[in-house]
Design goal:
Elements: H1 8-15, H2 20-27, H3 31-38, H4 41-52, E1 54-56, H5 59-63, H6 66-81, E2 87-90, E3 99-103, E4 106-110, E5 114-119, E6 130-135, E7 141-147, E8 152-158, E9 167-173, E10 187-190, H7 193-196, E11 200-202, E12 207-212, E13 215-225, E14 229-238, E15 246-251, E16 257-262, E17 265-269, E18 274-279, E19 288-294, E20 302-309, E21 332-334, E22 340-350, E23 356-366, H8 367-381, H9 393-400, E24 401-406, E25 415-417, E26 420-425, E27 437-442, H10 445-449, E28 462-464, E29 486-490, E30 499-502, E31 506-512, E32 518-525
Antiparallel strand pairs: 1-21, 2-32, 3-4, 4-5, 5-6, 7-8, 8-9, 9-10, 11-13, 12-13, 13-14, 14-15, 16-17, 17-18, 18-19, 20-22, 22-23, 23-24, 25-26, 26-27, 27-29, 28-29, 30-31, 31-32
Helix pairs in contact: 2-4, 4-6
Length: 526
Amino acid sequence: MTLVKLPPELLYLILSPLNAYDLVRVRQTCKALKVMIDNSEMLQYIIDLGYFQMMPMGTSERDAPPVTCRRRLRQHDAAWQHFEYKQKCTLPSTMLGPIFEFLGGVYGSAGEDCIYFTRLPSAADSDDPHCWSHPVDATTSVDFTFCVAQDLLVVVAYSPDPRTHAYDIYLRSLTTNDPHTDAAQPTLKALDKDIIDCEIIQSTGHVNVQIMGNYVSMLLWNISVNESMVRDYMQMWDWKTKNGYQFILWFHDGINDCSFIAEDKFLVLDSRGTVEIYYIADKSKPPQCTAKLSLPSLMNHVSYTEAFTGENIIPGTMLPYSRKSYQPSCSFHPSTNDQLIAIHVSVTGKMIANTIDFHRYSFFILRSSILELESLFARSYGPPTLNGPKLLWSTWGPQHTTWFRVEKNEDWQSSLYGFRVVEPINNPSEVPREPRRLRIRDFNPHIARNYHAQDISDWRGRLVDGKLTSIIFCPFTEPLGSALPYREIVSEELFDVDDTLMDESRILLLKKDEFEELQQIDVLVF
């Protein structure tokens, strides 16, 4: 008996475990299978999820029939296509602290003696934001972050005994502030003197803490050790395992930023224009550098002065929610199969008449491309070494990235989530801090690839095709390229905004004063 002669119920059971890409391939094999897949709302829903690069979240999607889920998914994407937000609200003034995080639909802000949290509304939940707070010691607290899916709050504070270690990292419950029940130990010690084998002289440099699944990682800049040495470190722990995986890396040439691109891989950006990929292959050893990529070369007397990655969804954070009260309110979240990665750089140099020239640029690349480049490096050079070769920009950059120059008064670090990027835009003739329009770019390759094949009569915005170019822009000495196509829409409405944050269903509009202090946060719900 051939496959197509099986009873429809049995054939459906065979096809339903397939992902969107496999279903599309099966659909192309014969007319009978095409008809069956086209007439199945469930199989079409799987294909739609793959097309929009989304995954269902929350109980509402598990209970609704496939036809309803398909309609909700398309309505969700259409709201972003047309820049049609459903409601707007303003966060309370307690949320205007200088240190803040926006993760999992929750906004957190450090105040004088508390960390304040607000669970933001969604299109399906029009209630007022739910707020709560946890006390902290403002004299010792340095940084914080949280993972809503794991009900985890991480607070970094100066060590009470800096002779032994530099910082204490407290693992708490986000909802109750009690020690987290899954934590192997309630407090982690950062920069333990016995581990780094150095005497800590001063630990007042900048720090940044992140959560990635079972890992808590911490970047520490400008740590003074021994008599006259200044170092940058990265330390990571498996916070759920007692005496489990822990490592510390010291970067000889300094580090600008670090960002996870998979549960066991992360990017490191240094100040010399190099992107390094690290892989946690063996938990008995520190992560190993697996590839080094060069950013575009610069003219003489010009150098990279800063480089950092844009915030985006971390693959390890999209876990089953541990508390019913924290079920995600939005039905759909970006798939973790792929995502957009942003690399923001600044370049400085002496130009004509010895004037100092300063420019900022943003490069965007797909995570899947980064992982392919890791394999290309291994085939070309083998394991990387300290002063060994790098994958030249001409080999990977123009073919895999799209770049933008950041104009004066524009937000440097555009906010991104999944494949979307949002930023306020300026008319060069406009006075700074006047109301501005917002621009959304969607780099989902499926949407760009099928843009002209769809009915776009009621769409707003435009499609920008990807292309390779031989043009060289100052201060670079080689072509940059604009390989990634994207769909762009600019809002008709003007917003009082300086910076933006975003997630799967919201845009946060941050308004600052002339001293860069937060004055107001508005939330657009899509």
